[in-house]
Amino acid sequence: MNDATLIKTGAIGAVVAAICCATPVLLIALGAVGLSALTGYLDYVLLPILALCIGVLSYGLYKRGQNAAACCEPHSKSK
């Protein structure tokens, strides 16, 4: 994967996980389909997903910085 794809994937995943953690949208959706008993376990799933997505985003930004540094280094002249 290139760094732009990693950054987009990490950012979208982190935003989706954060929205699910911060708003009751997921609770309403689970209640509507009859799975409201699972709401007590959402933190065990959503918080690790949020951490994983932030990790992917960080890795993508790190790779972008490494690629930018590699492009800008002057080439050494051979004698």
TrEMBL record:
Keyword Chloroplast: no
Annotated keywords: Membrane, Transmembrane, Transmembrane helix
Gene3D superfamilies cross-referenced by the UniProt entry: bacterial mercury transporter, merf
Transmembrane segments: 12-38, 44-62
GO CC annotations, alphabetized: membrane
Pfam assignment, any one: Transport_MerF
InterPro entries on file: Mercury_ion_transport_MerF
Protein name: Mercury resistance system transport protein MerF
Record organism: Borborobacter arsenicus
